[in-house]
């Protein structure tokens, strides 16, 4: 794959055009007072967050900048490339920050996400999945043929996958071969061929398919461990060693084959093991840009001593106390439709305007669709509680437009931008 020049990695004009979008009832984060204005006008007005209603989720401008810079510096020093998993945010404005900081490309998870990336002119896209939909493959073939600057790679994990892709691309009369990586899986993991011998046979099948081209080896170590315990890290290392051994034994069809792995939990191990292969290592960490106050706070390598500083959670929930039916039970107006809950419940941090003290001993105990249950006797009906959140991948998808504040720790933060998502 050929590197793109600075400024060409994404269509900046298409991203900038998002600032012209008119705000209205479609965006649940936007106050009625801002309806009819554009994103650019609201951004310039520097509206205080207190003008926004609840429930609400925000991003912190300083934390986003810190996180993008931290991983960019680290990957540069490590001599590896980064193709952030765009499915975490599905926000081209944030993708542009990552690409401008030196990212190799953007990773996506399915066909609709490829189309979003192409709508915003992302030049290099990795699909961390297999693409088998005939109509989708016909569209992809046409997209590659019509845009010679567009670089794309997907994964395969079975001969049947190769056969179906080849049939569909032939039927579509695609001219450019589609680059693919053999995907190596692990026991009880996700997708990916399980046996190394089968992986070598699969690579041979790719080479025989005229519409495909073998470009590298792919895998995902995060499916094999859910914590940074010794057992979890050992499982990750064992899998990565398999990848390293297999990478050197395949016959690729490109001048610069690459090996790709690495979520936001074990990228340090990926570099330690796969960096020794001599091939180009491409990380796919995605959650790092937003980070969190839960799962990734505990498991990120930057929280375990890697890097020059820990990552910072950029996302927060804001919810109002709407009921106190019992002395020590408060009900907040944000629930599962608003905030993530799959990797831990929201963490109450402070009451806006009252400092950190009032909720320092509070805890969330449950959520339903529109409410969070808070055990705490100190908050009052009408108080707005800031919540730390866990798992950005299931937070961003609940909001089509997300306010960015200047400083989420301020007594009354100011909204300095709005991030559009496309889930």
TrEMBL record:
Q: Which SMART domains match?
A: D-ser_dehydrat (SM01119)
Q: Gene3D superfamilies recorded for this chain?
A: Alanine racemase, D-serine dehydratase-like domain
Output the Pfam families linked to this UniProt entry. Answer: D-ser_dehydrat
The residue ranges of the D-serine dehydratase-like domain are 314-406
**Endpoints of the signal sequence:** none
Q: Which InterPro entries match?
A: D-amino_acid_metab_enzyme, D-ser_dehydrat-like_dom, D-ser_dehydrat-like_sf, PLP-binding_barrel
- Taxonomic superkingdom: Bacteria
- Please state what the protein is called: Amino acid deaminase
Originating organism: Actinomadura chibensis
């Amino acid at each position: 794959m050929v590197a793109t020049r600075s400024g060409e990695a994404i269509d900046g004009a298409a991203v900038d055009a998002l600032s012209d979008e008119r705000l209205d009832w479609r965006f649940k984060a936007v106050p009625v007072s801002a309806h009819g204005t554009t994103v650019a006008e609201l951004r310039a007005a520097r509206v205080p967050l207190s003008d926004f209603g609840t429930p609400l989720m925000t991003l912190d401008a300083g934390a986003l900048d810190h996180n993008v810079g931290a991983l960019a510096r680290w990957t540069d020093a490590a001599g590896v490339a980064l193709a952030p998993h765009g499915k975490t945010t599905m926000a081209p404005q944030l993708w542009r920050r990552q690409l401008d900081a030196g990212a190799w490309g953007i990773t996506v998870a399915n066909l609709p996400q490829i189309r979003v990336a192409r709508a915003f002119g992302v030049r290099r896209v990795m699909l961390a999945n297999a693409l088998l939909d005939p109509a989708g493959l016909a569209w992809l073939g046409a997209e590659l043929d019509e845009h010679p600057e567009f670089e794309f790679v997907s994964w395969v994990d079975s001969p049947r996958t190769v056969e179906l892709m080849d049939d569909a691309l032939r039927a579509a009369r695609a001219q450019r071969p589609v680059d693919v990586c053999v995907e190596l899986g692990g026991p009880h993991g996700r997708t990916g061929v399980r046996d190394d011998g089968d992986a070598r046979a699969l690579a041979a099948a790719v080479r025989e398919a005229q519409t495909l081209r073998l470009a590298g080896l792919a895998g995902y170590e995060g499916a094999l461990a859910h914590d940074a315990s010794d057992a979890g890290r050992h499982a990750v290392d064992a899998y990565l060693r398999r990848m390293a051994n297999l990478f050197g034994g395949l016959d690729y069809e490109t001048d610069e084959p690459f090996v790709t792995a690495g979520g936001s939990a074990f990228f340090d191990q990926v570099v330690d093991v796969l960096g020794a292969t001599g091939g180009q290592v491409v990380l796919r960490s995605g959650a790092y840009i937003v980070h969190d106050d839960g799962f990734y706070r505990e498991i990120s390598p930057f929280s375990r001593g890697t890097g020059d500083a820990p990552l910072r959670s950029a996302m927060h929930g804001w919810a109002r106390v709407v009921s106190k039916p019992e002395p020590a039970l408060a009900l907040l107006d944000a629930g599962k439709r608003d905030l993530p809950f799959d990797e831990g419940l929201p963490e109450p941090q402070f009451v806006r305007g009252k400092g950190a003290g009032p909720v320092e001993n509070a805890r969330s105990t449950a959520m339903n669709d529109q409410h969070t249950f808070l055990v705490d006797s100190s908050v009052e009906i009408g108080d707005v509680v800031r919540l730390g959140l866990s798992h950005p991948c299931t937070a961003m998808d609940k909001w089509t437009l997300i306010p960015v504040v200047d400083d989420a720790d301020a007594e009354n933060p100011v909204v300095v931008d709005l991030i559009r998502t496309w889930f």
